[in-house]
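Here's a chain:
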Amino acid sequence: MTDPGAPRERTRGGQDPAVDTATSTDQDRPQAQFVSPTAALEAKAAVGPQPSGPAVMELREVSVFYNDYEAVRGTNMPIAANQITAMIGPSGCGKSTILRALNRMNDLIPGARVSGTVTYNGQDIYAPEVDPIQVRRRVGMVFQKPNPFPKSIYDNVAYGLRINGIKGKLDDQVEEALTGAALWDEVKDKLKTSGLALSGGQQQRLCIARAIAVKPDVILMDEPCSALDPIATGRIEDLMRELTETFTIVIVTHNMQQAARVSHHTAFFTAEVDDKQVRYGRLVEFNDTEKIFTKPANPITERYISGRFG
């Protein structure tokens, strides 16, 4: 085990060679103290009125680089607690890149780095003393394609609880997570069945159960319904609304109707080409979802949501 007193070889936004995302436990990792929320960031040109509730996360002048390539530039955006924030925009505009910056998943990509500030309850999650594994416990992720482990339904949900040493009665915690993901009634009599035997929609809800089992504050969803049929999509959307009673959700979606249906706030990104003919993504507009879809402030946003490009 690495000497906890030794210097860490972490660069801001770079991969930490000492981190094992699958097996590290709280005892193995340095702990960072997360503090209460600070005031919301100052409004920028692309950012509309601040959310009425507290911002659990904030992005301030956040840019994401892959080696020397600046993929997304200067993003400013608050993430309101216990609400759904949607990110929309054409392919290649950087919305998934920004989503991954919210829990340092980009750290796992060689050459990736982040500039600017991403805060969680006022704490810079890229500060040297902050362990990315701890960030990912508090800011979980559900991916585009359902990815249950080749384990039983029970063990899929229990996995995170076990490796993180979370105490409590495991059976009760698994049931609570499956109930929270609206899956318990469908699987309670077959918990030892492989998670891979479930339907696509059930597998995605199993992944949501696995994410919420460790009780994060924020759940990131990267196009969670893109591989699902309309019925399964409707169930996931209903579940997202229910989950906001306990969790904050940030979703990336290509489905503008989905963003309009489920989200409280919407961020519209687009891709542009600078004077050196380098393509990059940027945030065009952030506002309440109703305003984005009925009275956008930027004509680029209006052209996108009206279907004139993208």
